[in-house]
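[User] I have long wanted to understand how a fold can be written as tokens. Those tokens are not coordinates but codes from a learned vocabulary of shapes. Could you go through the record with me and say what the backbone is doing? Thank you; the sequence and its tokens follow:
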Amino acid sequence: MRQQTQPTIKSMKTLPQKKLAGLLALTLSLSGCIDLAPFYTRPAAPVPATLGTAQSDPKAFTDLPWQSFISDEKLRQVIDLALKNNRDLRVAALTIERSRALYQVQRADLFPTIAASVTETASKGMASAANNTAGNTSGATTGTAGSSNSSGNISHIYRATVGFSAYELDLFGRIRNLNQQALQTFYANEENRHSTQISLIAEVATAWLTLAADKQRLAIAQQTLQSQQATYDINQKMFELGVANALTLKQLQTSVDSARVAIATYTMQIKQDSNALNLLAGSMVPEQWLPTSHLSSVVFTQSLPGGISSDTLQQRPDVRAAEHLLEGANANIGALRAAFFPTISLTTTVGSASTELSGLFAKNSGIWTFVPQISLPIFNGGRNRANLTSAEKNRDILLAQYEKTVQTAFREVADVLVQREGLQSQLEAQQSLKNAASAAFLLADARFKNGVDSYLVVLDAQRTLYTAEQSLVTLQLSDATSQLTLYKVMGGGWH
């Protein structure tokens, strides 16, 4: 049996290895000759060409790094802390890494998987009747040396090979389109991470400004309480002396209690603001980074544009992410179209074989195999057609979602621009109202102390002043957050 195996192994080398290598190179060069994916063009934006007064260089604002836009050093420190520790941003970053790995897995199908193997095959066959008769003339059945009775010899074949199995030639672009789809998914996740970062910066800054506004409101309430408490103490002594009446004392008591309620409310709100800021930052924000100054001192370094073009708006990360998903769906159609065409796969190995382990790598022991296979779909119950229809409808869905994303972005910018048109005039009017209310309160207080008016006049003037001061803080907060919102909706802040 050993002597019969070696000639069989040699007979496998009838085709020269150079011809085999040339054939493999030819077939590999044919891979990816046809791309069945629809030709992709960016869809027209379903919005007007411009919004407001578009600047000549709108990207100068959208590409502005957040460090150059936000001027307050404490707020910069808090944002930097959030970018390092926020869990939503961390999930977005990990999603990018996962999609990168999945893309690499898909991309590996473009290349053959090469593997080496060393095997031993042992077989045992029945001895022929002629050999048994020649070996035992008396008719008794005996085996050859080293074998049991009524059995043949044990043969061994040792093989060492290197090759690849079932490597698909991508003649119709199926694998390349699947690879393109995975790549576009990776790009979309990367843009989603940018969008998450923009939103996080705006949310952290808004939470920090809200905390500053509530601290300012608390300070106003404390000042009001201090003034009212002092007036109440004086009138209480006057009442005890019989100079002031009980009605005035009770009116003062109501204003003092109202201020105490406001202080308790803003104290609670400040603690909740701190909790919200700590959650966004991903850790406890150090006390020295919390706001202490008034909102009027928080300024942004870049003047805001009065409009934007739709082309610039399409550079927003969420819009780009939607477009990448649309491109991936377009590539998936090409992959499913390829399912209607033949599939060609190759299996080949090169190595050596011998019936003796010591002769495994000896001269003239080389072997090779080359197994091409063509598979042509004939009938599958309409599965391929249904898959293609599903992919086409998915492409149409993503197209509608892309257009909706563009429209949403356009609406967000439009809303902020409209809001900012009236904020400046409101701030000016509210500041004038606050100044007038402050002067009226001083006059009313002086007239009360001189006995000209009752305390009701003072109380009414003080309430008007308190409301004007609180409304001014609210408008200042709206002005600051609107600048942040416009910066976010225009796509700035992730650089």
